[in-house]
Design brief:
Elements lengths: L6 E3 L5 E3 L3 H20 L17 H29 L4 E2 L1 H22 L17 H21 L4
Antiparallel strand pairs: 1-2, 2-3
Amino acid sequence: MFPRRRIARGASGTVRLRLPEQERELLRAVCVEVRFLLDDNPDDPDLHRLFPPGHADPERAAEYQLLVRQELLDGRARALATVERTADRTTLDADEANAWLTALNNARLVFGTRLGVTEELDLARIAANDPREREIGVYAYLTWLQEQLIEALAGDA
């Protein structure tokens, strides 16, 4: 689907990025979109999977959200900011790579929720004229990139 690897293990624990400019721009745009939802639309249904209920009982779930939501928001915002700040780099250190992994996963969860992604959904079988074409393409790209980052980070394992 995508032509060549964009992320690989580098020397001494670094992660090498080989992203064309248009992919770097896409990543920055995705970060802006997710941050906008987090900052300005915290009740948007696309964020549902980023803040799962901590308990089946609604009252306890609300207490859980009061305890952890701000910490989760802060962590997600830091990860997005790291991707935005380092999107033009050719290498990432371990902390930056882990922030990228967090941001990619969070963005995938947002787009996956928006698309109604389930295990049964076959993205390859969706028609090219589907109105969700952009989001499907972004979701597929983020998935592909996240897989490469996981492989690069697991390189020492």
